[in-house]
Design brief:
The protein is built from 6 helices and 2 strands. The chain is mostly helical. The chain has a two-stranded parallel ribbon. The longest helix is centred in the N-terminal third of the chain and has 27 residues, at 2-28. The protein is rod-shaped, with a radius of gyration of 29 Å. It starts with a helix and ends in a 5-residue tail after the last helix.
Length: 132
Amino acid sequence: MEEEKRQTRILIAIALVFCALLIGYNAFYVPDASLESFVETDVSADGVDESQAESPGKINLNTASLEELDTLPGIGPAIAQRILDYREEYGGFTRVEELKEVKGIGDALFSQIQEDVTVDEPSESKRDGYVQ
């Protein structure tokens, strides 16, 4: 009986040491993160907003690949393929609002992506089905 109590006390002591080590480690652990990752905008000394310079340009609906379209918020591979099919069938987009004519893109989804896309108007000969 005395031996069991001694073994129990030893196990409790070992558990307490491990808990103390774990708590102590977490209390002083600092993740490797710089302050720059938490700053939304980074204005250089000359007053130029560098975060704007680093942002990628808008995606052109008439030249974008499936992978590029898939990066848009709310657009998956299926809708990206429908955009490509629409572009193929109608010879391209003449305005961004035409996206709403693609199945699966309603007003809510369109409002999410309209600032991320652009349209370079296709040539008239291509719109009519003739390729120069």
